[in-house]
Amino acid sequence: EADIYQTPRYLVIGTGKKITLECSQTMGHDKMYWYQQDPGMELHLIHYSYGVNSTEKGDLSSESTVSRIRTEHFPLTLESARPSHTSQYLCASSEWNSGSSGSNNEQFFGPGTRLTVL
Amino acid sequence: KNQVEQSPQSLIILEGKNCTLQCNYTVSPFSNLRWYKQDTGRGPVSLTIMTFSENTKSNGRYTATLDADTKQSSLHITASQLSDSASYICVVSDRGSTLGRLYFGRGTQLTVWP
Predict the structure, then answer these.
(1) Is A110 on the interface with B (CB under 8 A)?
(2) Which of B60, B113, B62, B53 is nearest to B90 (CA)?
(3) Which of A50, A96, B29, B104 could form a disulfide with A43 if both were Cys (CB 3.0 to 4.6 A apart)?
(4) Residues from chain A contacting residue B96 (CB–CB below 8 Å)
(5) B49 three-state secondary structure
(6) Is B100 in contact with A103 (CB distance < 8 Å)?
């Protein structure tokens, strides 16, 4: 079992609310990621970070924002939730391997947050 | 365009039977290919990783194969158990960036019946 945690596991909220999905890892990994996954579909990268104070947008456009103030913590925030944000959000982390192009380093995933916006 | 295609989309087998899941990819330049198992309501967990030079790798009852020439991989599950019911995701990493960008398939949903 990977040491990466997400809270809450399930969240049902109304439209317009501000929410923060928490992600923490105790493995000391530099790289962290947020993915969005809909049923029967592939994971889409929405944000990633190389380390503290580093945040980048992923492949899938997202209205969410992230921050990386501490190595172990990578929260995702939605300022105003909408029904289109209903999805599963998965956080992951991996070691930094600057010695090679590309990486064999495994990404360890958290259990996910199932978000439903009414 | 880098893509990962998996088949079948879903599969139902009886406990104790074997099955094989397929993955075709177009990711280039290729770095490695992983098979992940994702239980319902959980995050994916890595089963195997294969690099360009590896043809076969086993992890217990799971055996993955890779043909880098045809860009195909398979995951064979032997003597299936009820706990094997999950989504199996093929994930390919490219060599083109320090991020090690991952390309995900949509998964094969396996159901094992008693």
Answers:
(1) yes
(2) B62
(3) B104
(4) 101-102
(5) strand
(6) yes
